[in-house]
Amino acid sequence: xxxxxxxxxxxxxxxxxxxxxxxxxxxxxxxxxxxxxxxxxxxxxxxxxxxxxxxxxxxxxxxxxxxxxxxxxxxxxxxxxxxxxxxxxxxxxxxxxxxxxxxxxxxxxxxxxxxxxxxxxxxxxxxxxxxxxxxxxxxxxxxxxxxxxxxxxxxxxxxxxxxxxxxxxxxxxxxxxxxxxxxxxxxxxxxxxxxxxxxxxxxxxxxxxxxxxxxxxxxxxxxxxxxxxxxxxxxxxxxxxxxxxxxxxxxxxxxxxxxxxxxxxxxxxxxxxxxxxxxxxxxxxxxxxxxxxxxxxxxxxxxxxxxxxxxxxxxxxxxxxxxxxxxxxxxxxxxxxxxxxxxxxxxxxxxxxxxxxxxxxxxxxxxxxxxxxxxxxxxxxxxxxxx
Length: 387
Prior knowledge:
33% of the residues lie in helices and 28% in strands. It contains 11 helices and 17 strands.
């Protein structure tokens, strides 16, 4: 792995917009690669968009039904090679701590390809992914590559606020998705992991457009500020509630579900301040997890919040949905959360949690038929493995 260490050093020293060039040069010298292409998943998680200089027009590759999408979905290298092909094309997932970023496609002469090259290329992809996260502070290249179309300003604000779209640790795996991806405004999710705890929050801010995005930004940052000050979950809710009320005086408020998981024991502390709801699938049985409903953040001054506790077991799958999911109605008027969500969870039980939110939202789209979404729709899925 000494050569991988060389490319890691080269990536750290490179200009932010030249990371793919550094990797391509390494793979050309090491494996005779004549083409290296990095594609990143778009905000809607439907296409893989090529990383190209601004102004370039390159069609995205669909995630469903493409070789690149196969590598992205399975999170395993997929190789196109045959006795009649002069080249071998290797598609490798680029994923950091469970967050699926995209796919690196490498074309090498067929006589230079063996399965022995895959571990080294996988390490290169990991190094590339880490450096992209750092480079995004200094260049728009990779952010622009994720756009299959233009974002609204409200959606721009919301996507910049998110921690990622999936995360994995030995104790848990989780994924989340928002629709409409290019025009969201009020829904949001956030998480933070320490040595002992996972803190997960799901927010549904009232209003539309910029006003909803501004409200949610205030809520998420107030919760982060309280969490980083070392406060417990109840005080996080209390201080965020004060921040929102001080600014809006009750004219606008936000519904939030706050969860804090003990990574060692599976005990969960919860504060339900509004509308996001949670379901649990245990041994293929799906049931709603009830909480005592408390007031949304910022509705009234000096609201007191109370924490509840429940236990998750290894093998449990939790799904959290905003009201844009469970209140969506079918053409006959039946709400999605009453029955169809449980069916969707069961039907998608074999998918990893990083893929479940998108699958549930596809089922939601089929359920409402031609009826357009009247609100943001947010889904978070968490699989608990335990220690």
